[in-house]
Inverse folding.
């Protein structure tokens, strides 16, 4: 099966990681017997040249959409969305379809769909400067609606009154040109689950995410300065394992996720898990991103972490291959 790994300027902010990570994915798929090339598309024209003359069997994209922005994801509502374009051309690709990809990037829409499917999410409201905020109770948590890697998250994300709320909403609009998502503050532990495969063979692998206590400031949250610098630790989810598994399985079903996603959760004030987001293109940095770390926690091979990584990539590629009968 000939694979094209699609990436571009947004590959690190949006997707599995930088060019080095893309090269690691390529090495893994090659070693699994799939001839693989990397297509770095700098702009829409380069993407269309690739999509209009396919010389491959399947695409795996690090990008949700095409943008020159290397720093953050952005909404890009009117832009070119990879899965939509591949759907229109009936080109097979790894991962969720266009509709689900767009929903996962929009954390408000994600909450709406999950809530409608009976899946536990926090109280949530979309807020622009000047909007009525009467429904918000405090403490609340304010974040950009469609970012990743804790971009825009600091201790100031936790607001205690309407004045702090309004200041933080204005900050989000100014920095990211996005509306703010306001949620109930979830004070408990944080979990993330790697979800692999489809239907009957879907597997949910939850892990507990921690940072050494001394790194936290006023709140036990994963601020942006704690991410991507080797400070987070993943361990087994212990007593929460079954609750997290059930929740993530239902969430993946309600969202229509395919092949692999990573679902983040926190414990609310009443001690129950709630889903905070579904990541459509989880990070795949070997041995460092949460997805490969969780895979090793559950499926460590005697041959070591490199082999675990290869097998993880193999599970994802096989899930897609089977769906398309390639
Ligand atoms: N409602 C909340 N209550 C408390 N903390 C929260 C809440 N929502 C998010 N957080 C904290 O902010 C961090 C980032 O939030 P979230 O997972 O929604 O965004 P992200 O930047 O997209 O993350 P990722 O890199 O996993 O895609 C979380 O890891 C968590 O520590
Ligand atoms: Mg997250």
């Amino acid at each position: 099966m000939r694979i094209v790994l699609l990436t571009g300027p947004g590959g690190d902010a949006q997707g599995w990681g930088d060019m080095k990570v893309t090269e690691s994915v390529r090495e893994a798929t090659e070693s699994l017997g799939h001839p693989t090339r990397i297509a770095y598309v700098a702009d829409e024209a380069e993407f269309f040249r690739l999509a209009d003359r396919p010389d491959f069997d399947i695409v795996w994209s690090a990008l949700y959409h095409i943008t020159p922005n290397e720093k953050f994801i952005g909404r890009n509502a009117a832009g070119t969305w990879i899965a939509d374009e591949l759907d229109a051309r009936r080109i097979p690709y790894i991962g969720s379809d266009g509709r689900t990809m767009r929903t996962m990037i929009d954390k408000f829409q994600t909450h709406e769909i999950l809530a409608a499917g009976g899946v536990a999410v926090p109280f949530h409201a979309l807020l622009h400067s000047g909007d009525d905020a009467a429904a918000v109770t405090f403490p609340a948590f304010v974040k950009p609606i469609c970012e990743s890697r804790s971009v825009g998250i600091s201790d100031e994300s936790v607001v205690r009154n309407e004045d702090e709320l309004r200041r933080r909403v204005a900050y989000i609009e100014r920095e990211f040109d996005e509306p703010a998502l306001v949620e109930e503050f979830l004070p408990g532990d944080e979990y993330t689950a790697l979800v692999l495969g489809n239907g009957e063979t879907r597997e949910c692998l939850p892990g507990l995410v921690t940072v050494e206590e001394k790194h936290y400031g006023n709140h036990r949250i994963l601020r942006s300065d704690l991410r991507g610098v080797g400070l987070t630790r993943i361990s087994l989810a212990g007593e929460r394992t079954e609750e997290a598994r059930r929740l993530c399985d239902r969430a993946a079903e309600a969202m229509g996720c395919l092949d692999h996603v990573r679902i983040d959760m926190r414990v609310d004030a009443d001690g129950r898990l709630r889903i905070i987001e579904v990541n459509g293109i989880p990070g795949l940095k070997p041995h460092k991103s949460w997805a490969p770390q969780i895979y090793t926690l559950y499926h460590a091979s005697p041959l070591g972490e490199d082999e675990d990584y290869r097998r993880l990539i193999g599970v994802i590629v096989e899930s897609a291959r089977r769906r398309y009968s390639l």
Summary: The radius of gyration is 19 Å. Residues 122, 141, 143, 147-151, 153, 183, 185-186, 190, 221-222, 264, 266, 276-277, 279 surround adenosine-5'-triphosphate (ligand 1) (CB under 6 Å). The chain has a mean pLDDT of 97.
